[in-house]
Amino acid sequence: MKTPSWVYAIGIVMMLFGACGINKSVQLMQMPKAMQFGEDLVGGLTNLGKKAVKDSLSGDSIGMQTANQAIGFLSNTFGKMYTLSEDAKIWMVRLGYFGIFICLLYFVAAIFFMSNYRKWQIVCFTALGLSVVFSIFKYIKLSDAQSGGFFSISLGAGEIFSIILDIIIFVLIFMLSKQNINSDNQNQETQSI
After folding, report:
1. Is 28 part of any domain?
2. Exposed e or buried b per residue across 20-30, where buried means at least 16 C-beta atoms within 10 angstroms of its C-beta
3. Three-state secondary structure call for residue 167
4. Residue-wise pLDDT tens digits, 49-108
5. CA-CA to 30 of 20 to 30 Å: which in 48, 61, 62, 147?
6. Residue 61 lies inside a defined structural domain of this protein
7. Is 53 part of a structural domain of the chain?
8. What percent of the chain clears pLDDT 90, i.e. is strictly above it?
9. Are 7 and 113 in contact (CB under 8 A)?
10. Radius of gyration over alpha carbons of the chain, in Å?
11. How many beta carbons lie within 10 A of that of residue 62, not counting itself?
């Protein structure tokens, strides 16, 4: 029996999502270092700005006070964006490792799906189910307002997109495979008559 073209299309899409997921997981593992760099950068720019204000407005106390307040406001605002709790840093690395495992399973499921391996349904539906559950857990962990700043929350919100795509692929595979099985059964009945 010839493999339908929709199998290859969905399999390639799953492989792409798996590869992108691996990349995203590696980036998540590196995020605490990047956030620390951002926090250090904001601190350095704040000190540089205060020094520049002191040098240029040394005689104007009102201007210096206003400029220092503005620099303090900007420093606090941007500093909070780059601040992560220790718990958030630990979970980002853990979620990165789990994400690599899940995405590798997703990638392998796509290969089984395209090769028409006899147990492909179990492997594909397991990979998709684990991906949805992992994305929900990751969303909850990263969106926790106490764990991290702006970037942590935005990373968690990105998981909603992943959940929607996984559910769409799950439904597509389920519906199209059911349709394909029904058409094969009808063809066999027609041939036996």
Report:
1. yes
2. ebbebbeebbe
3. helix
4. 666 666 666 666 666 667 667 767 666 666 666 667 777 788 888 999 999 999 999 999
5. 48
6. no
7. no
8. 18
9. yes
10. 26
11. 8
